[in-house]
Amino acid sequence: MLIRIIRMNWIKTTLFPTSSAKMSTAHPDFERTCLQSCDGCDDIQHAKIPDFLLKKISDEDMSGSVKTYDRHLLIKVSSKVDIKYWPGHVDEWKALQDVMGRFDGLKWTICTDVVDKDEIDEEARLEDLEHVDLVLFPDRNVLKDIKLSDLGHGIETILNQDMVLEKTTEKHVLVCAHTRRDKRCGVAGPLILQEMKKHVMPEDGIRLLASSHIGGHKFAGTMIIYPYGIWYGRVLPCHAGQIINDTVKQGKVIEELFRGTMTIRKEDVSW
């Protein structure tokens, strides 16, 4: 199988000119190239999603599987809390129940850094946390060490376009690994992240994040790549290196995995 890579030459100038702008697709200038498929799937050179789960991943057209949105708030929690203990619906977390209803239309996701198992506290739970970090895309705004008791004010601050805030220059890769929401993502997500870690160096400025449900778990593995706002589905561990090298580092889009972006639906793109 060949994986076609489509270069979005206009991505830096038209994808995120403002937080509310929509991408124009009247005459997109795509540069296509082909890569050879993975040659390590048969001899176990990398992690593999179990066959019984692969059979449960939808082969439907992924058009229409991403609803466009203007801004995405990442609520970054301590990596000491294992994602397998997050509730099936993260809005069951009381700290969020008290504030999220005040911000209609804001897309939000809980996420955590990918760490080694020995850095996880098996006794820790979300309810034990007192602080979180906030990251907002496409603005790239960052607020660190926000008290959960003051989360509402923190969100108001990071959404305020008149505030001068710290900006992140890192690329962010959110991979759904939400075990209690869907087993497909709960298995595929960690395996994909495990492979991605092999292709990322500290100097790359890439942050790998395990996330709560982002939508479309029937297309597991699912991910969002910022600052581009690119959504992928049906990602396998063997795609990890190509995604890091071509999409995360260069902004190229792998057509077979493409679900859309935060500002444009897949069905509105003419390949």
CATH topology of the domain at 72-163: Glutaredoxin
Number of strands: 13
**Mean pLDDT over the full residue set:** 84
Order of helices and strands: EHEHEHEEEHEEHEEEHEE
Strand order of the largest sheet: 7-6-5-3-4-9-8-10-11-13
Number of H/I helices: 6
Poorly predicted regions: 5-36
What's the end-to-end separation, in Å?
18 Å
* Sheet with the most strands, sense and barrel status: 10 strands, mixed
Structure, described:
- The protein is an alpha+beta fold and 271 residues long.
- The chain has 6 helices and 13 strands.
- It has a domain of 92 residues: 3-Layer(aba) Sandwich (Glutaredoxin), CATH 3.40.30.
- Strands 7-6-5-3-4-9-8-10-11-13 form a 10-stranded mixed sheet, covered by helices on one side. The protein has a 3-stranded antiparallel sheet with strand order 2-1-12.
- Helix 5 packs across helix 6.
- The chain is globular, with a radius of gyration of 18 Å.
Brief write-up:
It is built from six helices and 13 strands.
What secondary-structure arrangement, pairings included, does this model have?
Blueprint: E1 3-8, H1 11-14, E2 30-35, H2 51-54, E3 72-76, H3 94-97, E4 107-113, E5 131-137, E6 141-147, H4 151-159, E7 166-167, E8 171-176, H5 183-197, E9 206-211, E10 223-226, E11 230-232, H6 240-248, E12 252-254, E13 258-261
Parallel strand pairs: 3-4, 8-9
Antiparallel strand pairs: 1-2, 1-12, 3-5, 4-9, 5-6, 6-7, 8-10, 10-11, 11-13
Helix pairs in contact: 5-6
